[in-house]
Each structure stands twice: as structure tokens, then as C-alpha cells.
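Progress note, project year one: complex with adenosine-5'-triphosphate.
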Amino acid sequence: MCEQLKSQYQLCEEIGRGRFGTIFRCFHPLSNQLFACKVIDKRLLTDSIDRQCLHNEPKYMALLSPHPNILQIFDVFDDDHSLSIVLHLCQPLTLLDRIINRPFLETHAASIINHLLQAIAHCHRLGVAHRDIKPDNILFDSGNNLKLADFGSAEWFGDGRSMTGVVGTPHYVAPEVLLGRDYNEKVDVWSSGVILYIMLSGTPPFYGESAQDIFEAVLRANLRFPSRLFRSVSSAAKDLMRKMICRDPSRRLSAEQALRHPWILSGGEASDVS
Ligand SMILES: Nc1ncnc2c1ncn2[C@@H]1O[C@H](COP(=O)(O)OP(=O)(O)OP(=O)(O)O)[C@@H](O)[C@H]1O
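Model obtained:
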């Protein structure tokens, strides 16, 4: 671990683990504040694309900070063996832990999606696509404010460039990503729509036994609202999901447009769209 980091921060217990990063709680004696520190072990990055993307995360987080719904970055330490990123400390439970098998009230789901879309709209205004929107990357601070995290797969599209490359996570990835075509920032709106569907029903819209089966279901993009799961869900919420989980990206809402949908504007209280 970087000596410079250890001279400024006291690393405490491990609070999370991803594919490459281990997250520790840490204390900064100078400011008397607690933070989270993500330490990425460079030796685990055997893939050349992963190595190239290593510095994207702190770079994009610095560009996007501060925003009330984006995890704030405070410091970066880089040496031969590791990259350490000092971050705002959040609660240990992510949206994934809150979502499993527990449908949310529409008002609660609307509040979460509203804040997620505000984070995404901010990223898109600054030309950054997150590309891995999923419940595990949605954290909450001690005041229960939503914080979008993990910009390790983010990409710049700001000068009108389209993006390529298969990134994302099976249940949440947009079909155009899997097709290997060029795509744009609306992949983040698709993934957010999938999260909304899971919050309201407790199950993902596209599923299968294996990653391959899930990919095939995503590519078919046959969006259904089985009455067993959606009997009490409003038509306004279904209308928004249809417009976010829309196979054709040119017809899919942007994050800004989704924020203006009646169901979001009414805080999940609108039952019909007029
Ligand atoms: N700032 C934070 N405060 C509290 N917990 C955090 C924080 N950042 C990350 N975590 C915890 O650590 C876990 C892994 O973090 P993160 O997703 O950033 O790692 P990663 O290596 O990029 O993961 P991935 O495998 O998705 O690439 C999160 O799901 C969360 O539980």
C-alpha cells in the first residue's frame, strides 16, 4: 500500500470488496474525519484494457464532483503496486442489499430513481457515460442520500463520439452494447429502467440460468409486466419503464426527459399519464 497514503490516513477495517478493489474505512487525523479508501492492487489487472481504464475512475470522479448524488472523491495516491482513492464514506448496504425480493412502494422507488437520474443527467451533461449502472454501485450516505459510485467502466463521449466495447453487468446491460455496435449514453437510462423494474416487482425483466441466457433475453427485449407482479403498479410507472427500457435508443428517453416524466414529477403518486 502506498507509503504517502499511510502517512496521511489511518486505514481501518475492510468494508467492501470488488473485482479489483478492496474498500477500507479510514481516518484522516488532520481533519478528524472518516473516509472510505478504495485500494486497487495493480497486480490483479492482467487484462490490458483493465490496466488502461485504471486511471479513468479517479479522473471521471474528479470531473463530476461535487454533485449531491455522485460519490465524492477527496484524494488519489498512485505507486507501482496500487492505486488508492479516498472517497466519501457511505453506509455498508448498497441498493442491491435493499432491493432483493422486496418490492418498494412507488413513492420510495420514485425518489430513488429521481436521484439516480439526476446523477446520470449530470454525468451526461459533462460528456461522461457511467456504463455500469447497477444496484451494487448505488450507495447511501449516513443521511440516506443516494450516491452513484464505481466509475471504473465510465467513458467519455463528450465530443459527439459514440462508444464501443462490451461493458456492464448481465441483467442491466443494454441490447445495443451486446450487439457490439456503436452506442451512446442512453445505455445508462436502460440500466436505470431495469433497476426501477426490479424495485417495483422484486424480479429483473430479463433473466436466465446463465449469463448467455440473460444476454439472449436482453437482446429479445420483450418487456412484460406479469399481473402476478404488477397488479398494483400504476400505469404511469409502467409507461416510464417502457420508455426507459426501450430497445431502440433513438426512441428511448434521455435522462433529462425521464426526469420530466409525470410519474417522477409527482414523486410516484401519478397513477395515469395524461
Ligand atoms: N465509499 C464507500 N463507502 C462505503 N462502502 C463502499 C464505498 N465504496 C465502495 N463500498 C463498498 O465496496 C463494494 C465494492 O466497491 P466498488 O464497486 O467500488 O469496487 P470495484 O472493485 O470497482 O467493484 P466491481 O467488481 O463492481 O468493479 C461496494 O459494493 C460497497 O459495498
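The chain has two domains: 7-87, 95-265.
The domain at 7-87 is CATH 3.30.200.20 (Phosphorylase Kinase; domain 1).
No further modelling is planned for this target in the current period.
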